[in-house]
Design brief:
It is built from two helices and no strands. The protein has 64 residues and is an all-alpha fold. α1 runs antiparallel to α2.
Length: 64
């Protein structure tokens, strides 16, 4: 289950990064909302499973 959680966080992080890169193609408010939702989810999951987080992983999403 921990591996699935880490995979989900990595997937969402990738989606967030792609949204940031392609922002000009989408409505800015929608992109901002999606990034915020992803950030909140990743933050919540990180708090639930602090021992599962790999310090070298890219499972953090920065708000823009």
């Amino acid at each position: 289950m921990a591996a699935e959680s880490e995979q989900a966080i990595n997937f969402l992080t990738t989606i967030s990064d792609l949204l940031k890169q392609q922002r000009r193609h989408f409505d800015d408010a929608v992109v901002t909302h999606c990034i915020r939702l992803i950030s909140d989810y990743v933050e919540e999951k990180s708090k639930e499973n602090p021992m599962e987080n790999n310090p070298g992983s890219t499972s953090t999403v920065r708000r823009s």
